[in-house]
Structures are given as structure tokens and as C-alpha cells.
Amino acid sequence: MAQEAKPKAVRGPRIDAQRNRQRLLETAKATFAEKGEAAGLEEIARLAGVGIGTLYRHFPTRDALVEAVYRNETQRLAEAAAELAATHPPVEALRAWMRIFVDHIATKQLMAGVLGSIVGGTSDLYADAGAQIKTAMAMLVDRAVADGDIRLDLDPLDMLRALAGVANVSAGPNWEASAKRLVDILIAGVRTPGREGR
Amino acid sequence: MAQEAKPKAVRGPRIDAQRNRQRLLETAKATFAEKGEAAGLEEIARLAGVGIGTLYRHFPTRDALVEAVYRNETQRLAEAAAELAATHPPVEALRAWMRIFVDHIATKQLMAGVLGSIVGGTSDLYADAGAQIKTAMAMLVDRAVADGDIRLDLDPLDMLRALAGVANVSAGPNWEASAKRLVDILIAGVRTPGREGR
DNA sequence: TTTAAATACGGAGGCTTCCTCCGTTTATCA
DNA sequence: TGATAAACGGAGGAAGCCTCCGTATTTAAA
């Protein structure tokens, strides 16, 4: 058998490509925060100082860019869940986390329109992000169920979908307050009778 | 003062225009039911056997077509609310109506994506449709509040927005059951303590 | 029945946005 | 330094919403 030639060294990404990718992510995040779903990719490329072909080389579709931009946020939500679980009683942790979820939308850390896809969709693209949120929510819910505080015969994600519904459209100026009020209603609605701690 | 000449008779719409409009509405309804928001206007025009200019003459924007298609549905929901109010105790009427609301989505009588705009938006175009639903929901809620069954410090429409959130994305195959379960959770969440009639 | 006027038609073309392809440029390694 | 591979960017295509205007059709009056 012939001996294989020694392979050439594998290259990492070029530094210009790394720099461009970073600029695209930062610019996209800012533009989505300002314009939401109306932000166009040509505009994002221009603002980042790159060509549209470059944007597509790094992020093959619009959704791929969106997913990359918000990957950090979903991770942060997952981490927040772990912290709350370590520091709060079960149902309080659940409530607090859902309010943080609402905060993330309010501070434009998540674009409302994308939220539905992340928590509600079945698209593979958002599988990672969706899984992080699903795992976080399921963990908090399981804890509260095990504690006897709540009983839930509904996919926990459906509660987040409900919150997304309040956030998702050009709702009125008080949508945030409404969403947080809805958190309380949902918690009250799944409370085990006789366990109204409030 | 000169006497005005007798005005000519005012014409109604031509019969071909009436026929085309009806065909457009029927075709649009069927296409939206089948393809949801992916239905394109060129396709709808073609399927209806008319030109794209004709579609736009009757419905100046895509939203105008959507609103016209679903005007009947929102009216039916409003009528259902009146009937339920006449035949059911307050909180039962509210619960039943919200389930009918979910049914409408399930049977494609309402396109989930439009639902958000109807119940959640501030656009003038959907003001009539939105007002019908808002009035229906508010009437049922007011009745239940007056009866002492529930207390609600949340815009009633936010409960529908929450349902729309469950319906709004390509949710799993059991979204309908989830939505109806969510109806019960919401009702339980706004129940006046000590009034758990269930 | 014919004519004139008004209504209505439809499709070519414009605009926007997402996306693709490929000639050119740039970074990297030997 | 030269060769190669990675990366670039922008022209152009496709899709979909929408507009405009020459042509067709309907309707009422003579």
C-alpha cells in the first residue's frame, strides 16, 4: 500500500474573515434592536462595511444570521435559570425567570418576531436556541411540580408562547406590564389548589 | 340661482366586477386556508381567473384582502359571544367563547398569522375586525367580573394575544389541545379566590 | 339598435429584498 | 517571493407586492 503524503497544515479562518464576521454580528444585533424585522440584510452589510456576498458567505440565510445574533441571549437565559434554581424556591424561581424572559424582549435583547420561532417553531435552525430555553423552562417547571406548588399538563413552552403572543405584534405601549401580569395569571392558573403562597 | 340639472342615475357596481370580487374572496379564503401567509397574490389572482390589476382594484393592499376575507369570521365570533352571554353563566360563557376562538383557528377559519394583527395590532385596517372581537371579549369579561367570578387587571385582548401566541407559529401537532388547556389555565388564573366553581 | 360614457380589466414594468454566482482581491504558508 | 486557497463584493436573478395605462366590457340614454 502506498504511503499517504503528509497533509498540509489545516488553516484556520483568516483574520479578515474573523473580523468581518464579528462586525456583521454586532451590526446585525444593533440593527435588529432598532428596526426589528424590518432590518434588511443589504443595510446590515453596508453598515458593517462589507459586501452582501460577504454577509451570505458567513450566514447563508437571513435566519442563520438571526440565530447567530441571538445565540448568546438564549444561553444567558439558560444560565439565569440555573442561578434562580439555586437561590429561590421553585415557584418563585419559575416566576422570576419568566419575568426575565419578558425583560429580554423589552430591552430588545430578543426581537419579538423571532421569539416565536425560537420558542415555538419546529425548524432545525433554531433547535439549539430552542433547546436551551426549553431545557431551562422544563427544569424550573419540573422543580415546582416536584415541590407540589404547581401542576401542569401543558408543554411548558406553551406558556412562553403565550408570552410571545403578547409581545409579538405591535402591541400597545404597555405590553411589558401586560406580559408580566400574564406571568402572574399563568402562575396562578397552574397553582396547585391550596398552595397560593402569595 | 340657476336650477341644477337633473343628475344622471347613480350606477351600482357592474355585474362582472361583483362576480370577480366574489371569486377573489372565495379563492383567497381557500388559498389562505391551504398555504397560510405563504399564499401569494399573483397566485390567488390566477386561481380566481382574474388579472393581478383586478385584484388590486378590488383590494388595494394585501392586508385589505386579508381583512375582507376574514371580516365574516370576526363577525361570527361577535355573534357567538352574544349567544353565549344569553345562554350561559358568565364565566362559562367566557370560557366557551375562548374555546370557539381556538376552534376558529383550528378549522382554518382564521389564519394564525393574521390573528395577531387582528387582536394585537394597532393598525387602522383591522380596526373594525379588532373592535368586534374586542367588544365581544370585553362584554364577556365584564359580565364575569360583575358576577364576581373573576377579577382582571389585564386588557382582555391580552388573553387572546396569549392564545394567538400558541397558535401563531408552526407549533406542534397538538397546539389546539394546548390552546384549550391554556384557556383553562387563564380562566383559573383570573378566578376570584373562593369562586372555583369547576 | 346604436352610441357614448363610465367602469373594469389585465399585464408589463417598477421597486424591494433575499439570495447566487463568479471574477477579483487578499491572506497565508512554504 | 510565489502559489494557493480563502474571502471578497457587486451584478444580476427570482419572488412578491404594487402601479399605471391602453384596451375591453357593461350600462344607460337616445
Assembly annotation: homodimer
Q: Tell me the fraction of residues in β-strands of chain A, as a range.
A: under 5%
Helix content of chain A: 55-70%
Assigned CATH class of the largest domain in chain A:
Mainly Alpha
Total domain count of chain A: 2
What would you note in describing this structure?
The structure is a homodimer. Chain A has about 200 residues and is mainly alpha-helical. Chain A folds into two domains: about 15-60, Homeodomain-like (Arc Repressor Mutant, subunit A), CATH 1.10.10.60; about 70-190, Tetracycline Repressor, domain 2 (Orthogonal Bundle). Helix content of chain A is about 70%, strand content about 0%. Chain A is built from nine helices and no strands. The first copy, chain A, has helices spanning about 15-35, 40-50, 50-60, 60-85, 90-105, 110-120, 125-145, 155-165, 175-190. In chain A, helix 4 (about 60-85) runs antiparallel to helix 5, helix 5 (about 90-105) runs antiparallel to helix 9 (about 175-190) and helix 6 (about 110-120) packs across helix 7 (about 125-145). The radius of gyration of chain A is 21 Å and the shape is elongated. Mean pLDDT of chain A is about 85; it is low at about 1-10. The interface of A and B includes residues 169, 170, 178, 181 and 186 of A. Chain A binds a DNA duplex (30 and 30 nucleotides) through helix 1, helix 2 and helix 3.
